[in-house]
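Quarterly update from the structural biology core.
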Amino acid sequence: MRFGEETVIRVDNLQKQYRTVAAVRGLSCEVLPGQILGLVGPNGAGKTTTMRAIAGIIPATGGVIRVAGYDVRQEPLQAKKALAYVPDDPALFGALTVYEHLVLAARAYEVTDFHAAAEVLMARFELADKRDTLAQELSRGARQKVAICAAYVQGAKAVLLDEPLTGLDPQGIRTMKD
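Predicted structure, tokenized:
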């Protein structure tokens, strides 16, 4: 049964244990459509671990995580389809162009009408002139922008951004904030 259809992300008593280290202890939160939730804390506080657990990349040791009403553990494909995740240092495919990354992301998430959105995103993030540039030729900031655009072109209900401003120039930072 789906819980909280209006809730985009719901975390109840999340726990993640690595051997003897408790990375996350009893975290609970809820994100509604249009809301922004920031995880703030020092290095090692469990922010990235929390995001990876929400994204279904690593399993939680305890608790329940739901994305768009889907239990990440019980309905992983549906939960992952409703979510986009941009890590702090995204790994792109070096032999794909900027535009090919957006095509790949859209097709992986079965988005059919994405071309106009991809063009708008590339323009907003100042990647239009790099459309046919291979990822291996991009700066770190440009790679970050590609990953952000790929996340948004998926049409996900929620986007997780881990250190999204790292490597971005001032214009990219303003665009992200907008």
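The chain has two domains: 9-81, 98-177.
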